[in-house]
């Protein structure tokens, strides 16, 4: 029989003993305690014990033999061969010094310790403890004397009876629930960081100073809003502030030299803020977190530090710019949810442009803020418009925050005027554009892709004999083309660009895109969205003349495109009607920021919306989240975004790039085989796989479920390619061009046998 001589292994790649892994946790525990000594609801000694004992259950024959087999080394003799392996987390509590704990801690805190260790991995549940008792007696006892580690208390025997501490799981109604979330969450965080050989936390040393230096270099001093945020760093805030007033800098001042998360609704906005903070404010310790993080890092050569992506995923960076859904899925309370909630308990969360979220997401966010603040975390909502109904619902959930404050951009001590608004009670059309496009940057925003494509086609036909720069941007372009178009609209929309032209877009330009056009023609969606769209025109300029620079189309005797009483409507029909009523008489009306906010406050009241579907969905979502029991939902049942999209490649694009796509697929297969045979260079090989995947995904466009179903029913699905077992891309026989994007084929009613696949 092999003798272990204390070389009990925890991992094989790289080879690491249980003691080495435990010491790595304790180093990280010391580090996080030094950076954040005032974390609430944590008993540092209990957390230390959890770290020391969490993996000691790996001192069992079946686990050790599993690792030796991987290493092609001699195995141990197994005295209980016929029994299945018990997950090590279930065995680790057997090593705890139970009598010492019962003398020094109350039973509830002991439950926290036992359950943090017992459940630190999500494994198949044990129905009874008989197998644990057998394993402790016949297996673990064999090695107890051989395991030498001075931090483990060996004055007591191993215990096989600890069911009373772990069988009834700690729930939110228990008095020690908060301590459990913090202990279990931080144990997981320390364990993952130690396993990945990365820092558990990186200290935020100078975000405040870097932001101050940036303002000084630009020739500014902190304004009223920024000063308020500095003075209220320890409070939860709701800030309603006009475009161009410095909300980003104000948010960074509020985060200060603390751990922070800066959330925005759209990936393109997140990428832009990330680049701005890193390149202009020159704060280096910043992470980017959304569904395409790895690809974005590859583009920016951020993965030269191979651990950077792991640090991002493990929420180790001091500042992370991200989508909300990457953070708040802890509200579903599935196995492992404690890590994110514990991390947010000592963090500061910025929520930008809250009005852009769906009513479901608003409901989720309200409950997330409730849970975060109850554990000690802080938030600031910083937005151009804030529906009062959201504030009312937050108060109902007893979330504590400063009274909302409003800031307007002022010029010569007067609220800056940027917009004159005229309402047109018609469907959107190009009549006004024809008379008002020369020597201007024109922005046209439609509610739907179909309407945007229609307006673009009309403009092309109208100006076919003139050399006018006309472009179209919406969500139905392949990624490669969309990226190019986003760069182009940012270039034209730059305040220093002297070129003119017309851009037709959808609501994807509403949030945080730093563009400045001269005139806007837009369909009405709702009043809050309208003011977001207006923020793309005269962004930082004062309107000096008396000319209308905002035209709003109300739809005439029908709603605007995409608006209806169905569940697929882009906006609640009741909110659309209230918004229409609020602005219907505007004719070349001066509309400053104060007046805009007053209109939002008048429209989005609880009294006006209490019978709307918008209010009902928020309320129902909150009530549903409250009913969720800990660990009853599986991770695959969690869905924060009520949007189902399908990645597709238009056949015309596939045909043009078939060789590249097929070569990339083959390259992925070859690298995977290489990784299977040699695990020494896995991180670098993963980069190569991602690069090949990104080459293929550059030809992808996402389409909603109804469009995918239309393609399937009309035999327009041509083929399918598989990137891996989780990622399949469908090739569809739709029309596509760089100018217009994806459109249904003109002969859509014809059955085409050549392209039928499913």
TrEMBL record:
The keyword rRNA-binding does not apply. One of its GO terms (cellular component) is cytosol. Residues 416-591 form the Helicase C-terminal domain. GO terms for molecular function: ATP binding; hydrolase activity; metal ion binding; nuclease activity; nucleic acid binding; RNA helicase activity. Residues 11-193 form the HD Cas3-type domain. GO terms for biological process: defense response to virus. InterPro entries: Cas3-like_dom, CRISPR-assoc_Cas3_HD, CRISPR-assoc_Cas3_HD_sf, DEAD/DEAH_box_helicase_dom, DEAD_box_RNA_helicase, Helicase_ATP-bd, Helicase_C-like, Helicase_Cas3_CRISPR-ass_core. Keywords: Antiviral defense, ATP-binding, Coiled coil, Helicase, Hydrolase, Metal-binding, Nuclease, Nucleotide-binding. The keyword Nuclease applies. Residues 668-702 form a coiled coil. Pfam families: Cas3-like_C_2, Cas3_HD, DEAD. NCBIfam families: cas3_core, cas3_HD. Belongs to the DEAD box helicase family. This is CRISPR-associated helicase, Cas3 family. It comes from Caminicella sporogenes DSM 14501. The lineage of its organism: Bacteria, Bacillati, Bacillota, Clostridia, Peptostreptococcales.
């Amino acid at each position: 029989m092999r003798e272990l001589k204390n070389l009990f292994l925890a991992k094989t790649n790289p080879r690491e003993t249980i003691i080495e892994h435990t010491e790595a946790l304790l180093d990280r525990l010391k580090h996080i305690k030094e950076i954040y000594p005032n974390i609430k609801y944590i008993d540092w000694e209990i957390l230390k014990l959890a770290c020391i004992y969490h993996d000691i259950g790996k001192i069992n024959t079946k686990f050790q033999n599993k690792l030796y087999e991987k290493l092609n080394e001699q195995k141990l003799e197994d005295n209980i061969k016929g029994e299945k392996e018990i997950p090590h987390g279930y065995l680790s509590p057997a090593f705890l010094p139970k009598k010492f704990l019962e003398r020094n801690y109350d039973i509830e805190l002991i439950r926290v310790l036992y359950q943090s260790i017992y459940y630190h991995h999500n494994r198949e549940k044990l129905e009874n403890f008989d197998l644990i008792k057998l394993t402790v007696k016949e297996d673990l006892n064999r090695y107890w004397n051989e395991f030498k580690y001075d931090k483990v208390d060996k004055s007591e025997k191993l215990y096989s009876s600890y069911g009373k501490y772990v069988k009834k799981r700690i729930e939110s109604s228990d008095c020690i629930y908060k301590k459990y979330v913090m202990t279990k969450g931080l144990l997981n965080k320390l364990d993952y960081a130690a396993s990945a050989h990365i820092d558990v936390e990186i200290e935020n040393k100078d975000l405040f100073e870097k932001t101050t230096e940036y303002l000084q270099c630009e020739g500014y001093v902190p304004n009223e809003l920024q000063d308020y945020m500095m003075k209220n760093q320890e409070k939860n805030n709701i800030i309603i502030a006009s475009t161009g007033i410095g909300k980003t800098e104000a948010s960074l001042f509020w985060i200060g030299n603390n751990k922070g998360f800066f959330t925005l609704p759209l990936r393109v906005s997140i990428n832009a803020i990330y680049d701005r903070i890193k390149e202009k404010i020159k704060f280096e310790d910043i992470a980017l977190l959304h569904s395409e993080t790895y690809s974005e890092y590859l583009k920016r050569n951020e993965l030269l530090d191979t651990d950077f992506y792991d640090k991002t995923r493990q929420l180790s960076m001091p500042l992370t710019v991200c989508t909300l859904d990457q953070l708040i899925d802890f509200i579903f309370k599935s196995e492992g949810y404690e890590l994110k909630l514990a991390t947010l308990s000592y963090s500061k969360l910025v929520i930008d442009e809250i009005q852009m979220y769906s009513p479901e997401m608003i409901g989720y966010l309200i409950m997330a803020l409730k849970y975060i603040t109850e554990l000690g975390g802080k938030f600031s909502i910083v937005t151009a418009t804030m529906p009062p109904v959201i504030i009312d619902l937050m108060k109902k959930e007893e979330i504590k925050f400063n009274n909302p404050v409003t800031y307007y951009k002022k010029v010569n001590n007067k609220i800056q005027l940027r917009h004159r608004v005229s309402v047109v009670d018609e469907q959107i059309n190009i009549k006004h554009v024809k008379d008002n496009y020369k020597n201007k940057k024109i922005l046209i925003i439609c509610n739907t892709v179909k309407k945007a494509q229609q307006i673009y086609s009309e403009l092309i036909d109208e100006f076919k004999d003139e050399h006018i720069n006309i472009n179209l941007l919406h969500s139905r372009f392949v990624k490669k083309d969309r990226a190019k178009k986003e760069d182009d609209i940012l270039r034209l929309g730059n305040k220093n660009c002297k070129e003119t032209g017309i851009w037709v877009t959808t609501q994807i330009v509403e949030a945080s895109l730093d563009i400045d056009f001269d005139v806007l023609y837009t369909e009405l969606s709702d009043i809050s969205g309208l003011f977001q769209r207006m923020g793309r025109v005269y962004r930082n300029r004062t309107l000096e003349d008396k000319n209308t620079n905002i035209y709003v189309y109300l739809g005439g005797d029908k709603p605007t495109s995409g608006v209806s009483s169905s569940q697929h409507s882009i906006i609640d029909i009741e909110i659309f009607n209230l918004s229409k009523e609020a602005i219907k008489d505007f004719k070349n009306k001066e509309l400053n920021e104060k007046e805009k906010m007053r209109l939002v406050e008048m429209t989005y009241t609880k009294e006006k919306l209490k019978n709307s579907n918008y209010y009902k969905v928020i309320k129902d979502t909150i009530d549903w989240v409250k009913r969720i029991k800990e660990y009853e939902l599986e991770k695959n049942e969690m869905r924060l975004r009520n949007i189902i999209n399908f990645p597709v490649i238009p056949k015309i694009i596939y045909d043009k790039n078939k060789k590249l796509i097929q070569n990339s697929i083959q390259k992925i297969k070859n690298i995977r085989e290489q990784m299977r045979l040699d695990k020494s260079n896995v991180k670098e090989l993963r980069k190569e796989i991602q690069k090949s995947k990104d080459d293929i995904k550059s030809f992808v466009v996402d389409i909603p479920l109804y469009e995918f179903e239309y393609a399937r029913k009309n035999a327009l699905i041509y083929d399918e390619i598989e990137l891996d077992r989780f990622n399949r891309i469908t090739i569809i026989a739709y029309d596509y061009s760089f100018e217009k994007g994806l459109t249904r084929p003109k002969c859509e009613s014809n059955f085409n046998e050549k392209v039928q696949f499913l």
